[in-house]
Structure formats: C-alpha cells, structure tokens
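Hey team,

Filing this mostly as a record. A colleague (T.K.) asked me to run one chain through the structure pipeline before their review meeting, and I want the input and output archived in the tracker in case anyone asks later how it was produced. No errors, nothing strange. Just documentation.

Input sequence:
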Amino acid sequence: MIRGISPEGFVFLFFTSVILVTAFMSSSSYSADSSEQPLSFSNKDLEPYENSADRKPREPQSPVPKNSEVKKTKAEDSREQKEKEYWCKKAAPQRKKIQQLNEEISEKERELAVENAGTAVRNKKARTLDKALAKTRKRLKDAEGMFSDLADEAHRKGVPMGWLRCQFE
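Output structure:
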C-alpha cells in the first residue's frame, strides 16, 4: 500500500482513474463529426458484381386458364359449396338450441331476481325457479358440448370454423 492512503481511499482513486481513462479513450477514438454520413448502397453499386446466370426469365404473371381447368374449378366450387351448406345445416340446430337456452337462462334469472327482491327468506317459488335454472344451465352445458364435438369433427376434416357458423366469406 501507499503510505498515508487508507485501503478505501486507494480503491476510490483506482476506480476513478479507470473511469477517467476509459472516458478519455472513448471520446478521442470517436469523433462525433456531423459531416459523416452513414454508408448507403443502391442497385447500381451491385451491377458490376452481377452474373448473367443470376438473371432469371420472368414468368407470365397471370396465365390464361384452359377450358378444362375452368371446368375443374367450377366442379370444385360446386363441391365446396355443397360441403359448406352441409356443415352449416348440421350446426344450425345446435347453434339455435344454444341461443334459446341462453335466452331461457336470462329470463329465469330475471324472474328469480324479482322473486328474491321482495323478501329476505326464500319461498317455494324461488326454490322452484332456482332448480329450473340449474336444469337449464345443465342443458346448455350439454348443448355446448355437442357443438364442441361437432366443431372437433369439422376440424379433423379440415373444415373452417366459419362454415359451422354459416360464414362463408
């Protein structure tokens, strides 16, 4: 150790000198000259390095379909349209049942709220409504499960989910 300097003072001087030297070296090696512009290149700069093998002939952008191809696409479109209608018709009753059960649940919830609003003690009608509401919720859960099974089947067959909702475009 150097005489007259405590170990803490020595550490302080050491780190201060390291920071100052680093700051001085970094500021002298980097000139923040505003006249320097970043390099940019264009296609003209690459032309001397281009080979004739690099150039590929252009393909026509929109080939004119032949009559047989047009007939094929019409047949495919017809088959696809029939498949869309099949899945839409298969899912429509289940979607309708789910919608009806949701409406029935909200109606029973409103009735139950009106029945419970007047009294602190639950009466027989409120208990009956509560049981009916529980049954309806179970039926809704079952209907949603059936729709989910149908959606899984459609997914396995590569059918878009929109077809089950009759959304074709």
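Quick notes for T.K.: The CA atoms of residues 111 and 117 lie 10 Å apart. The first helix runs from residue 7 to 29.
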